[in-house]
Amino acid sequence: MKKDTSGKTWKDSVALRWVVLILVSGLMFSTYWFQDFFSGLKGLMESELGFTSEEFGRLIGFTTIANMFGMIIVGGIILDKWGLRLAGLLFGGLAAVGAVIVALGSAGFFGEDKSVMLNTMILGRIMFGSGLEVVCVVCTRAVVKWFKGYELALAMAINVGFGRLGTALGMALSVDIGKGFVTPAISFAATLIGLTLIMFLIYIVFDIKLDRQVKGQNAGNNLEEEEEEDFRFSDLIKLITNSSFLYIALLCVTFYAGVFPFIQYAPDLLVNKFGFSYNLPEGQGNFILFGSTNFGNTMVYVGLFIFGLAFSMIPSKRKTAAGKMLAYLVIFAVFYAAIYSMRDTLSLWLQNGPKTASLIPLGTILFTPIFGNYVDKKGKAASLMILGSFLLIFAHISLSVFNNVILGYLGLVSLGVAFSLVPAAMWPSVAKIVAEKRLGTAYATMFTLQNWGLGLFFWGIGAVLDLANKQNLEAIRAGEMMYDYTIPVLMLVVCGVVSIFLSFLLKKADRRQKYGLELPSGQKPE
Ligand SMILES: NCCCC[C@H](N)C(=O)NCC(=O)O
C-alpha cells in the first residue's frame, strides 16, 4: 500500500469526521429507540398481550438489571482491553440479539402462554440492556477519538441528540408502525439496531485506517503511542470518597429517576388523565412518514430551513450584517409558514399521547446545546442544577395533583426544560471534578448507580399504578374507567426534592473544594 507522507490523518478532514459521527451515532439512535419505544405501546400491551401495569414495569425495569450489578464496569474493562471496535461489535451485537428475542417472545415464538411471552421478552430486554449502556460509552469514546482538538462539544451534543431523536421517534411512531399490533413495532425497532450495527461495521474500516495513519505518524516522529488509562478499582475508591463527586453521582440517580421512567409512562398518563388518544384518526396526521399533500410542502420548508441555518453558520467575518439579518428572517419565516401550513396535523398530534409526550426528548435536542453553551460562557452549573430540580418538582406536581390540561402542558414543558438544563450542566461539571484520566471510571460509576434508580422506578411506577387502582382494574381493562396516575407521579416529586437537596450540597462542596462549577469553562477559582 502507498504510504501517506502528508502528515495528515483522516480525522483532519472535516467531511470524514462528520461521516464518522453519522456512522457512530446510528447505534445511539437505534438503542435509545429500543430503550424507550415501549412507552407508546403500553395500552396495546395491555389489550393485546394482557400485560398488567406491573408486568409492563417489570419488563422495562429488568433492562437495567445487569447494569446495576456491574455490566457497565465490565464493559469498560473490555473496552480498555479489546478496544472500541471489538467492544462496539460485542455489545452492539448483544443489544441486537436481545432485541430479536424480545420480538420473537412477543410473537409467541417460544410459547403463547402469557408468562412465557413475558419471561422471554424480559430475557431479551436483559440482554439488550446489557449492551445498551456500553454501546453509549463506546460511541462517546469514538466521538472523542475523532473530534478531540476539533468540534468535540458540538459533536458530543449531536451524538446524544441522535439518541434523543431515537427516543422521540420511537415513542411517537411505534403505534403507527405496529398498526394495532405489538410485534411489528418491536421487529421494526430490532431491525433498526441491526441496520445501525452495519453502519458501525463501516465505521470500523475508518477506524482501522486512522489507527494505521496515527501509528505511521508516531513511528515517523519517534513518538510513543498515547496510552489510555485502564479502569482501576483504586480510582473508584478515590472517586466515591470525593464529596463533590458523590453528590453529583447521587444527583444523577435521583434526577434521571424522575425523568426517564416518567417518559415511559407519559403517553399512557396523557391518555388516561387528560383524554388524549393512542391512535390518530384513520389516514390523518402522519404526513411525515406516509406522504400526503402536505409532504411536498414540508420538504420545501425543511430545505429552506436548512439553507437558512447553514447560511447563518458561515463565520460572521465572511458575511455582512444585512446578509445575517436576511438569514434569520428566512429561518423565522420558514418556521412560521411550516407551523401554519401544518396546523391541522399539529393540532391532531397535540391530542395524541405518544406524539405529545415525544416532544419532551425532541425539545431537548434543541435546548441542551443552548444551555450547554450558556454553561460554557457564563458558568452557574450548580445553580442551574438547582433550577432544573425545581422544574422537575413543578412538572410532577402539575401532572399529578391537578386535572387541568393547560397545567399539564406547562408540566411537560418544564420537564423538557429540566431534562435539557440538568444534563447540560451535569456532564461538563463531572469533567471539572474528575481528572481526565479517571473520566471513564467516573462515567461508568455514575451510569451504574443511575441504573439502580431507573430500574426501581421503571418497575415501581407500574407496580404502584396497579396498587393505586386495585379496586378498578377490571373496569379499566374493560375500557369503562381510566387509570388514576396521581400517586405514581406524585411519588416522583420525591426525586425532585432529593435532587434539590443534593444540588445545594454540591454547590456548597464546590465552594470548599474549588472546582469552579459556577465559573465559565476554562476559568479557575482564585
Ligand atoms: N434511554 C437512554 C439510556 C442511556 C442513559 C445514559 N446512561 C445516560 O444517562 N445518558 C445521558 C443522557 O442524558 O441521555
From TrEMBL:
Localisation per UniProt entry: Lysosome membrane
Q: Topology with regard to the membrane? A: Multi-pass membrane protein
Database matches in SUPFAM superfamilies = MFS general substrate transporter
Q: Which reaction does it catalyse?
A: L-alpha-aminoacyl-L-lysine(out) = L-alpha-aminoacyl-L-lysine(in); L-arginyl-glycine(out) = L-arginyl-glycine(in); L-lysyl-L-alanine(out) = L-lysyl-L-alanine(in); L-arginyl-L-alpha-amino acid(out) = L-arginyl-L-alpha-amino acid(in)
Coiled coil (residue ranges): none
Record carries keyword Mitochondrion:
no
Q: Which UniProt keywords apply?
A: Lysosome, Membrane, Transmembrane, Transmembrane helix, Transport
- List membrane-spanning regions: 15-34, 59-79, 86-110, 122-140, 152-173, 185-206, 245-267, 287-313, 325-342, 357-375, 382-402, 408-430, 442-465, 485-506
One Gene Ontology term of the molecular function aspect: transmembrane transporter activity
Enumerate the Gene3D superfamilies for this protein. Answer: MFS general substrate transporter like domains (1.20.1250.20)
A GO cellular component annotated for this chain's UniProt record is: lysosomal membrane
Explain the purpose of this protein: Lysosomal dipeptide uniporter that selectively exports lysine, arginine or histidine-containing dipeptides with a net positive charge from the lysosome lumen into the cytosol. Could play a role in a specific type of protein O-glycosylation indirectly regulating macrophages migration and tissue invasion. Also essential for liver homeostasis.
- Membership in a protein family: Belongs to the major facilitator superfamily.
Subunit comment = Homodimer. Interacts with lysosomal protein GLMP (via lumenal domain); the interaction starts while both proteins are still in the endoplasmic reticulum and is required for stabilization of MFSD1 in lysosomes but has no direct effect on its targeting to lysosomes or transporter activity.
Q: What is this protein called?
A: Lysosomal dipeptide transporter MFSD1
Question: Lineage of the source organism?
Answer: Bacteria, Pseudomonadati, Bacteroidota, Bacteroidia, Marinilabiliales
